[in-house]
Write a structure and sequence with these properties.
6 helices; 16-stranded antiparallel beta sheet; alpha+beta; 26% helix
């Protein structure tokens, strides 16, 4: 009996070694140059963006990595977004727990980086419903967001549904800073009260750029820029005062979100503050009053947001 077990275990070991070696051989010898061009061209056709990369290959043990990635938007004033490295690795162990999980790593040309971990229940993916992550982890190491925000503003400005008056403003707005901190949330859709986690994110050297000639406003250097909150017993509490604050502009939020199942029924209980002062108040205070239907006073608007995430109700305070 012992001899038989030895022979079986020996054969199993040989098969395992052969299988791992074969997969490793395929990963090493795969024609990634051809795949790189196919992916770049395919994504460009689907998105309408110009996408290119210097190199594309395997990220062991189970993933892919692109280096020298460049994404250029559409339009005459299109912005280009560049990443030194972008990798995606799947975590096969989570399949045993009925989840699909992946690690995403993003590195800027200045070597500032950000890593994101996402896990989705396979049941939500298979059912065809919009899957809600059961786990979200983010770790940002002074990740510079200048190019990313410029790309987003440009995309919004050239969108099909953009207001003709808003588009030029978005083209002239910029945001610079470095995202630093972490987020760790575990959401239990079957038992929302067991959800937990924390958010500690801030922007270092954050500045809202308004000095474009089309705007003629001073840049807003934020003295406070970030969000802090905690998720305990299914209740996400956002610390009052989270948001952005400069000498002339305040955008802040506070309150809570009660996680429910299904997720769109989660309940909001938030208070928002928009405050314009000095030159911003003089030039745009009347717009804030107009858009709020007279709810704003002296360039200050306070709002309460209540109800389910799918259909929130907003009321002036």
């Amino acid at each position: 009996m012992t001899n038989l077990l030895n022979r079986v275990s020996g054969r199993t070991g040989i098969i395992a070694i052969f299988s791992v070696s074969f997969v490793f051989f395929l990963l090493i010898t795969f024609p990634y140059e051809i795949l790189k061009e196919s992916i770049s061209n395919g994504l460009s056709r689907v998105t309408g963006l110009a996408i290119s990369m210097d190199d594309f290959g395997a990220k062991l043990p189970a993933g892919m990595q692109a280096t020298g990635l460049s994404v250029t938007g559409r339009g005459a004033k299109a912005k280009t977004l560049k990443f030194n490295r972008l990798s995606v690795r799947m975590n096969p162990l989570y399949l045993l727990a009925g989840k699909l999980a992946a690690n995403v790593y993003i590195e800027n040309p200045d070597l500032s980086s950000m890593s994101i971990f996402l896990a989705f229940p396979l049941s939500g993916i298979v059912s065809g419903k919009d899957p809600i992550p059961s786990q979200i982890e983010l770790d940002s190491q002074k990740f510079r967001v200048d190019e990313l925000t410029a790309f987003i503003f440009s995309a919004l400005a050239t969108g099909a549904d953009v207001n003709p008056l808003v588009g030029p403003v978005l083209q002239g707005v910029g945001f610079s800073g470095k995202l630093d901190g972490s987020m760790d949330l575990a959401v239990d859709s079957s038992s929302p009260q067991d959800s937990s986690g924390s958010i500690k994110l801030k922007f270092i050297d954050a500045t809202l750029k308004l000095s474009d000639p089309s705007l003629g406003l001073p840049d807003q250097k934020f003295t406070k820029a970030g969000f802090q909150g905690s998720l305990t017993n299914g209740l996400l509490n956002l610390e009052k005062g989270s948001g952005f604050e400069s000498d002339e502009l305040t955008l802040s939020a506070g309150g809570s979100i009660a996680v429910k199942s299904p997720f769109p029924t989660s309940q909001l209980q938030l208070e928002l503050l928009v405050k314009l002062q000095k030159s911003l108040g003089e030039k745009f205070g009347f717009l804030l009053d107009a858009f709020s239907g007279g709810a704003a006073k002296n360039g200050e608007l306070r709002l309460q947001v209540k109800g389910p995430i799918s259909q929130p109700a907003t009321h002036p305070i």
